[in-house]
């Protein structure tokens, strides 16, 4: 089986990018170790702090963030980092080449019940002559990502990575190596599986409500087939399922916070996951346009997300287009 480094070298990956990915994996392996120890190491439960989004931080949110920050900021190629758990970006080497944006622990409400969580990351080139402690340098749209991925900490720890040449999966072995276990991932175009938090049904836009209502009608409704539903409450696990066997995952805008475009964050959830999904032949939208074409104004900006099997996501978009044209008529 191929080591991550061998695979990247065979695919002519830029040497410095390879070096950065290897460094990121040093941090993710340490996070995996902390998660495995869990209650034994006293790292479960919450802290007394809230992050910039007003969410209570879990101990492991803070620990994972510190691990990533320490490892990355000690690397000469890293000009700066931005994180879900940091209100402002943190500058690294002013001559560094890369910016790394991350969600240190996604799905952290799952930690205390021992269900899957993950680390999501997005890598950008650092524009020259900028102050890397200011968010301006980081506010690049998703198309500018030179690599993106996640490490899912589930029954196995799995790195899912794209450097813009498809999507590949690497499983962490007992020897501490990431080994290639799935090459050139392609998401099936059609699906019978959807993922949405149904408890928010009454808060959605009419287009989203009627799309989901039609899925629930199954073979008796306009979609003429029965659908199954899943909800892990960790985007990283939902995207992994979609990449593995297809499906649609959506966390749409809802009227609980009408002024926010959605719940999930554009720069460290939406963009990296959208790059993986598009690189695997799927589609990732905010129900109206591709997520990676949204120009960010804020490092912690939110976005509505619908991603997965191409034809299913296109169908969902068609419901929104119809609704929009009725509104305008
Ligand atoms: O609890 P809800 O509303 O279903 O939200 C679940 C969503 O929230 C998230 O957990 C947010 O991520 P964080 O844990 O990094 O804040 C997503 O991974 C997931 O899709
Ligand atoms: Mg998250
Ligand atoms: Mg998080």
UniProtKB/TrEMBL annotation:
Domain of life: Bacteria
List of residues binding Mg(2+) 2: 103, 106, 269
Protein's GO biological process: fructose 1,6-bisphosphate metabolic process; fructose 6-phosphate metabolic process; fructose metabolic process; gluconeogenesis; sucrose biosynthetic process
Catalytic activity: beta-D-fructose 1,6-bisphosphate + H2O = beta-D-fructose 6-phosphate + phosphate
Gene Ontology cellular component terms for the protein in this record: cytosol
Alphabetically ordered keywords of this record: Carbohydrate metabolism, Cytoplasm, Hydrolase, Magnesium, Metal-binding
PANTHER family according to UniProt: FRUCTOSE-1,6-BISPHOSPHATASE-RELATED, SEDOHEPTULOSE-1,7-BISPHOSPHATASE, CHLOROPLASTIC
Protein name: Fructose-1,6-bisphosphatase class 1
Classification of source organism: Bacteria, Pseudomonadati, Pseudomonadota, Gammaproteobacteria, Oceanospirillales
């Amino acid at each position: 089986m191929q080591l991550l480094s061998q695979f990247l070298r065979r695919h002519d990956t830029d040497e410095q990018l390879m070096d950065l990915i290897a460094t990121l994996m040093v941090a993710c392996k340490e996070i995996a170790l902390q998660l495995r120890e869990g209650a034994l190491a006293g790292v479960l439960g919450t802290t007394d702090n809230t992050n910039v989004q007003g969410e209570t931080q879990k101990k492991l949110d803070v620990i994972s963030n510190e691990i990533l920050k320490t490892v990355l900021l000690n690397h000469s190629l890293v000009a700066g980092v931005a994180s879900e758990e940091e209100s402002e970006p943190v500058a690294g080497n002013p001559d560094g080449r890369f910016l790394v944006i991350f969600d240190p622990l996604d799905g952290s409400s799952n930690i205390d019940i021992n269900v899957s969580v993950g680390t999501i990351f997005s890598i950008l080139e650092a524009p020259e002559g900028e102050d890397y402690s200011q968010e301006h340098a980081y506010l690049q749209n998703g198309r500018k990502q030179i690599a993106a991925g996640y490490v899912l900490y589930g029954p196995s720890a799995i790195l899912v990575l794209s450097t813009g040449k498809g999507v590949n999966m690497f499983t962490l072995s007992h020897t501490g190596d990431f080994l290639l276990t799935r090459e050139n991932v392609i998401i099936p175009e059609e699906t019978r599986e959807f993922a949405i938090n149904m408890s928010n049904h009454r808060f959605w836009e009419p287009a989203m409500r009627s799309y989901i209502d039609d899925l629930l009608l199954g073979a008796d409704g306009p979609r003429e087939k029965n659908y199954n539903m899943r909800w892990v409450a960790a985007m990283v696990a939902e995207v992994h399922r979609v990449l593995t066997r297809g499906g649609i995952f959506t966390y749409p805008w809802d009227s609980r916070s009408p002024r926010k475009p959605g719940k999930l964050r554009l720069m460290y959830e939406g963009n990296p996951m959208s790059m993986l999904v598009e690189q695997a032949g799927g589609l990732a939208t905010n129900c109206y346009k591709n997520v990676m074409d949204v120009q960010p104004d804020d490092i912690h900006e939110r976005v509505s997300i619908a991603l997965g099997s191409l034809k299913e996501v296109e169908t969902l978009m068609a419901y929104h287009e119809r609704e929009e044209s009725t509104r305008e008529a």
